[in-house]
């Protein structure tokens, strides 16, 4: 079953049960993230929570679209394309902010190749560009598959490039800090490496997903990746569900607590030096 060309999203009859299952799974992990967010007041993870909501809305819309076969309507098809495509950009935004906070909480600013404040700004700018391009491209697929596809590829290309640079930046900081933790206080008592490993793992999953999406759209409407639905679930839905689940298990609330402790430490040092 071929969906009308206005969407350019799938050239098969999408599975209603699969969409429902992932809507439920994403709903469970997103609900857990919402509870964790408000319970711990880890506000820099708001974007991540919103990304989870986007996944839920996307797969509910995909289920609605699948249930309409063979007479698909525009609205649910457009919503599922846009929301599922751009949700990982919101995950990425929180991951970028987490690295900046890890650098500050460890007191390891001198081991980062870029100042923590600039790390957040630089990568968030790239994330915003990627988000806007992908959202605009997905929304314009209805009018022109080629122009929409081009915008999506630009957005995904920006996302892949910035994520690659981000992982290199994180790895260099980790490599430089590790042999110098004895000079610092917080890294010795906080599991900062655990959070770094979580960043690597989740970043790699998003990186692989973005490469898949880039390859999918680079191949055009005739791409084998656009001909079979299971690719979407294997290389997007499952990977993003893992990303959300990993952060449920290793929620970064501890980073906020350590950051506040670091700020108190710096304030005390400043007061002592003035005295």
Automatic annotation (TrEMBL):
It is a multi-pass membrane protein. Keywords: Membrane, Transmembrane, Transmembrane helix. One of its GO terms (cellular component) is membrane. The chain crosses the membrane at residues 15-35, 42-65, 77-97, 118-139, 151-175, 196-215, 230-251. InterPro entries: RTA1. It is found in: Membrane. Its main location: membrane. This is RTA1 like protein. It comes from Aspergillus sclerotiicarbonarius (strain CBS 121057 / IBT 28362).
């Amino acid at each position: 079953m071929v969906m009308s060309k206005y969407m350019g999203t799938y050239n098969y009859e999408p599975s209603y049960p699969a969409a429902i299952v992932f809507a439920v799974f994403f709903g469970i992990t997103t609900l857990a993230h919402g509870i964790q967010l408000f319970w711990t007041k880890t506000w820099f993870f708001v974007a991540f929570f919103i990304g989870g909501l986007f996944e839920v809305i996307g797969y509910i819309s995909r289920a609605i679209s699948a249930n309409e076969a063979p007479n698909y309507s525009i609205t649910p098809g457009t919503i599922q394309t846009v929301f599922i495509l751009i949700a990982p950009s919101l995950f990425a935004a929180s991951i970028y902010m987490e690295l900046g906070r890890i650098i500050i909480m460890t007191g390891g600013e001198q081991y980062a190749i870029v100042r923590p404040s600039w790390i957040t700004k630089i990568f968030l700018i790239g994330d915003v560009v990627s988000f806007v391009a992908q959202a605009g491209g997905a929304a314009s697929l209805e009018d022109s598959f080629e122009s929409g596809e081009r915008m999506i590829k630009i957005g995904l290309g920006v996302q892949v490039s910035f994520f690659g640079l981000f992982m290199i930046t994180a790895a260099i900081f980790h490599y430089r800090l590790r042999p110098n933790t004895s000079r610092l206080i917080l890294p010795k008592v906080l599991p900062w490496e655990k959070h770094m490993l979580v960043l690597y793992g989740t970043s790699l999953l998003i990186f692989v997903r973005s490469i898949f999406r880039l390859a999918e759209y680079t191949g055009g409407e005739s791409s084998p990746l656009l001909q079979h639905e299971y690719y979407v679930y294997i290389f997007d839905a499952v990977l993003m569900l893992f990303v959300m689940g990993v952060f449920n298990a290793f929620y970064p609330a501890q980073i906020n607590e350590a950051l506040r402790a670091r700020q108190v430490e710096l304030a005390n040092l400043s007061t002592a030096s003035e005295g």
